[in-house]
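Suppose you are handed a protein chain with no further information: no name, no annotation, nothing but its sequence. What can you learn? This example shows the usual starting point.
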Amino acid sequence: MELRRPGRVVAMKASNICVSEPELQLRELDLSTVVLPPRSQLISLPPFGVGSGAVESLWGYLQRLASAHAVRFLDLLVSVGAPIVRHSKRGQTLGVWKHEVSAANGSTVGHRLAIFFGKLTCRADLESLTLRCINDVPGLCVHARETHAWCPLCLAEDPEPYDRLLWAVADSTHCPKHQCSLVTRCVGCGRTPRLFSTRSSVLHCDHCGCNKGTVPSAKIESSVPADFGVWQSRQIEDLLKAVSGKGLVTRELGPRAHNLRVSASLPEIRGVTGLARELGLGRSTPWGWLNEDRIMPLKSATRWAWITGTSLRQLFFEGLPQDALRFRPLPEAVFSRHKRSRRPVVPTGSTALFLAALRLSAENPFLAPKKCALEKASGVHSKHVAFKDVHFIRLIGSFRERERRFLRKERIWREITDVHGAAINVVSKRLPLGRHRVAAEMSKPGSFGGALARAYLRWLKSRLAAGHPIRPKIVPLDVRAYWDLQKQRSLV
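A reasonable first move is to predict its three-dimensional structure. Written in structure tokens, the prediction is:
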């Protein structure tokens, strides 16, 4: 049986219950709570090369993020309140953190930037765009480059050019793909592009707007040999690939200590003279890395891997047997860069230091010569026994006592001359000679407060009351000569 009503049809079932078709469809709907994913404040732009050696740098990612929002890079940082933006009297500015520019891709400032923009874009892979991952390798220290470097061939071949994190490593000098030196100066203007400026860009120079993908006509000469530079860049790229996108690395020095102990026992390495100098080190040696658990700089680690015939990944993550190590000396160009210039040895009984002190005191009789000036003029090191000679100590002591007395005399005459000139100006205006009026006419208003200056002002008042005119003050000749010398140095 069917009942016809305008607009719908109601079906009668055997149980005499009337149910409409819309109600049946409503009962079939899933009315459970829908969980919406978090929404990002900025465009969730995926970075390039995550998990590979050609991973994008954080600076290049932020440049692309600003281009996606059609704003300037600096405006993006200021508008979102990035943690490296500071406030000054002129408002929000970026000039007060110039010391953090080189660390934009580093493991401290860059890591904070990655966490901050990761929350705004809802991306968890931005931390792999900094040097934090490679700095977490146990016993390794990596520094960021202070200036911008790039490979023009890579930028020209990319469908969408982006900045590599490998180029931000300070010890990376060559491109591992094209085996050419990295470019640090613009082809058009010859200047170094800045990382943070109003017109900074990945593909264009912020000074002249020239395309960075333009290959220089002249061959770029690097101080590092091509074979060693390419090998070093490939080792860094391989290490970036090993740690990129895998989070923090466990802090265990076991593999590194084992490999260093095995490689340091090679007879060829035992016979290398000046090994610390060859590795670019000062006092630290491989034995210091072993016994004191010191951190290895990336430059020293790559050179040690070259000498032992291993790789960075094997040196820090794998245990190597002694028969797998082969000694290979560094190229001559790398070794020659770290030769220290030695000064000629001055004999113990030489009088060069005493004569240099007399000569410097004659050039400037008002001040005592400094130790650095004495070293430069005489060629005698500060640890030489001549600096401890009793006659030299007495001579320097007399120079310092003369300097102390003269500076006290010059300070008094400077204050008295200032008070005298201000008093003449007050008297010329036919005003009473008061302390506040004189202080207002001085070269530095409000500096009138010395006991000698107050006594001199009282003497001027007594002279003026007795009817004597106030004439210009005659300054001693040595004080005037000192003032002329200071004026000449300020002009130079």
